[in-house]
Amino acid sequence: MTDLASAVWYKSSLSGSGNNCVEVAHVDNQYLVRDSKNPGGAVLSFLSGDWAAFLSRVKTGDFDTRP
To answer: What is the pLDDT of residues 7-47, one digit of tens each?
Structure first.
């Protein structure tokens, strides 16, 4: 289990001053994701390779929704 106390959380600068987004931290070989509205809530954990694959698909638009 990753020690969350050592995590430094970041959110996109595009989210502005709002608190309606996700935050990401990188600890050891894992990327952690949490809801910025509920920082004490659940945390998702991804290995570095899985996180890289996810970001690659985001960048290519695989998760874009279109009406």
So the answer is: 999 987 777 666 678 899 999 889 999 998 888 999 999 99
Rounded to whole angstroms, how far apart are CA atoms 19 and 53?
Answer: 26
CB atoms within 10 A of CB 26: 14
- Predicted TM-score (pTM) of the model is 0.79
The position carrying tokens 């690659």 is 56
Residues facing residue 43 across a β-bridge: 34
- The values of phi and psi at residue 48, to 5°, are -55, -45
Angle ∠(13,53,29) on CA atoms, nearest 5: 80
Residue among 25, 29, 33 nearest 8 (CA): 25
